[in-house]
Design goal:
By secondary structure, this protein is mainly alpha-helical. The chain is built from four helices and no strands. The protein has one domain (about 10-155).
Length: about 160
Amino acid sequence: MDGSEAAPLDRLGLAARWLAIAGGVLLLAAMGVTVASVLSAAFGRPILGDTEIVEMLVGVAIAWFMPWCQVRRAHIRLDVFTARAPARVKQGLDAAVGMLVALVVAVLAWRLIQGGIDMHERGRATMFLQLPMWWGYGAAALGMALWTAETVRQAWSGPRRRT
């Protein structure tokens, strides 16, 4: 490759890509609910529980976008202190920071899974629509788990292509 072509995605990359596309669909659905809610309210008939739906959809969508950001290495990076460091130092720091990020995201995934289990066991639901809350936790945990896996893969494999 001459550098202008993207390398083919591996299984984690493909999963992240499809999850991000699904997150985009969720975001479009949240937008549709918001538009419908504004229009309904304009005619004096607000939609009960619209914020519950939008909050859950947007929260899951964000969690589903994060693995694709990691695949693309598109997260914000502060390299002002390492800009002039040798390549080996940068690679070592990238690997160490990658493993730290993976640890933090793994903890988030674990807590989302535990929160979803607790919500399911307690039968917790949203206030107006009585939607079960556990599914949002589980769906977001899926994104966090995939983000963790991709971050670990990148930290172990060193510098890689941008797709």
